Amino acid sequence: MEFKETTFLAQNTPEQLHALRHLVFHDILTLDSAQNTLTWWPEHKVISLNEAQKRFFSCLLLRITSKRQIIATVWNESYPSISDNNYHQLLFQSRALLKRAGLPDGLLVTLPYHGVRLNEEKLMAITR
């Protein structure tokens, strides 16, 4: 993974994650946090994101997979009052967003009893 206009820190805080401008995954996906967009480069599709989706995809691109860490990052200060239902709804909405944009199924992989991750193997296979 390559990072542009940012410094990757070993111990990222939610505030540091929100400050990242661009996250790039092998020239396949680019998250632009200033524009709240996710760009799918194989077909040059730009997908608009809401704030929660932007934070969610920043976690995935930084390989943060734990449900608790994702909740803490996405909902920041209010995360102690956020239920698992909010997390599952965000995951459902994000999958639906990718599907509406015409991206391949299976890009988000549920990790039972842990969280979710990007299907990096599938993403890399797309570029071959």
From TrEMBL:
It comes from the Bacteria. InterPro entries: Sig_transdc_resp-reg_C-effctor, WH-like_DNA-bd_sf. Gene3D superfamilies: Winged helix-like DNA-binding domain superfamily/Winged helix DNA-binding domain. This is Response regulator. It comes from Candidatus Pantoea symbiotica.
